[in-house]
Every structure is written in C-alpha cells, then in structure tokens.
Amino acid sequence: MANILSQDEVDALLSSFSDEEESEAESTEQVEGPGHPAAERSVSVFDFRRPNRISKDQMRFLEALHESFLMRFSGVLSGYLRTMVDMEIVSLEQLTYGEWVRSLPEVTCVFPFSMEPLQGSGAVEMNPGLGLSIVDRLLGGQGSDVDHARDLTHLETTLVSRIASQMLTVLREIWSEVVKFTPKIEGFEKQPNLLKLLPDPETVVLITFELKTQTLNGTITLCYPFVALEPALTKADAGAFASRAIRVGQIAEGPEWLAKSIEEGYVNVGARLGQGSVTVGEFVRLRKGDVIRLDGSVHDPVEIDVGGIRKFFGRPGRSGKRIAVEIVGRIREVEGGDIDDGRCSGTQTGNERGRDQ
Length: 357
Prior knowledge:
Chemotaxis protein chec; single chain; Surface presentation of antigens (SPOA)
C-alpha cells in the first residue's frame, strides 16, 4: 500500500513550492529592472493570416466616400419604395474572403458583380428576410418585417436584383470621382459557400449598411476585393473627397427640364352645370327620367374646375359625338367674390375640348 502523507508533510511541501516562486520573482525583478532593455520593450499582436493592408487614412477615405453614397442611394430607394428610407454605415472592416463567406448564414441573397476594367469581382449580400419585406412593399403591401425567412422565388429574386442594380448604379457615380469602373451584376447565389469569387486568403473590404423604414429594418453588406481597390486607395485623400462630396452642383438645363416635366403632367378637369339639393326620401325614390332642379339658369355659364380648384367659366356643348365645354372666361378670386376678367374669352384648350363630362 502506498504511503499516505500526513497533514504536516503536505503543509511543508506546499510551503517549499511558494518559497521557490517568490525567489524566482525576485530574481526576475533584479534582472529586468526599470533600466533594463527587456523591461522597456512593448509587445504588439500581429496576425500573419490577416495582415492590415489598408491604412487608417484609407479606411477614413472609404467611410467618407460611402457616406456620400448613402445620401444618394437612400433618396433613390425612397422614391422606389414610396416611403422614407434612412441608411447608415454599421461597420467597415477588412477580412479574408474565406472568413467573410464562413460568417454568412447558410442561406442568404448574394449578388456578385464585375468591376471592369478593374480586377476581381465584388458582391452585394442581403438577408432573405429584408428581401421579402422589400418585395412586399414593391407589390403594394406594408413591407413589414418577415418573421420566418424563406427562399426567394424567381419573380422575387428579379425584384430584389433591381434594388442591387440601382445600388451599383449610384456606386459607379460616386466612385467616378476617384476611379472609373462599371459594376454589373453577374448572377445570384443563395448559398454563399458555393460562390468562389476569390481565393480564401485574399483580402476583402466589407462595408455593412443598416436600412430603416417605418416598417422594416435590415442590413446590406458590400464586399470589395482589395486587389481592385488598391490602385485607387494609394491616391486616396479622405479630406479632399469629403469637400467634393458636399459641393452642390447645378444642372445647366435644370429649369427647362423641370418646366417641361410639369407641362407634361396630367390634371383632372371638370365642369359643373349647377347645384341642387334633395331630401333623403327624394333621393331614394329617384328613377330614370326624373328631373332635379338646379340653382342656376340655363343661360348661366358653367364653372370649370382644374385640379379641384375653380379656374374658368365655360359654355356647354358638343365636340363631335362627345359632350364638351368651351372656355369663355377666367375666374379670378378677389376679396369680396369671384369675378370674370375676360382674359380667356372665346378660347378653348385641347385638354378641355372633347373631354367627357
């Protein structure tokens, strides 16, 4: 049978170990004192598998550039979704391509895009839940958050890819101030592990945006290959770009274009022969052929409304086989009542002529 140590022997053994540790610590302090070179050395961590190939200044440049991108794209998306859209940068980081793919869910929406004439291909990643909410909004729904995401159908994929295409269009305009390239969607992949855009050790730049509306909330990730951005980043200047980004430009033909667009817009035009009042009982008993007395005379001009506003006096008649109204004067509202200034007497516009009443 093995010998069993007594309590005194155990205490003596533990005290001997503590004495050895204290003597080693004292010898270390004597060797590496305040003036010793080893005590002044600083240790920094460096991961050779993930080298930082982008400097802090270049990261600030990318942040300034994509903040300008979000200002434009959120406006485009607001008009497309018919609701207010707020977007902001959540994160900006550099990883290897393999790490990024492994961080994605097993099923998602990835739209790879080419960057001709630059090398490599980028990608736009969107969660299927956000994609389904956007599709619901585009098809007339509220665009509420989806609790249980599913695979997108072919039609839904087509609608979401249009959002990605508009995103790349704005991205091309923003990057044109630094380097010119034409991003173009090359397909769709729902399983990111099957997507082989770059070798796994290749460095990529990931920029994650958060998209918010009144009814939905989600993230969109933009992936750039470092090999494509390297020529542009070497001459990047975040301050100079920011000053150009906030500069307001003026389109030379802007006023003419705006006036032409307004002229081509449609407005509702209606004519009122007069007004009358009946009781509820009389209204219920109305039949075909009954006559309702109006408050005006047959010789009084009719009032013509444009966009729900009284604008002209007119005279009813026919134009071919259609009921029409001829404009005989303009209504000008002044204090004390409406008067006819006679400036449009005898004229007739194409919009009012021949319109069914």
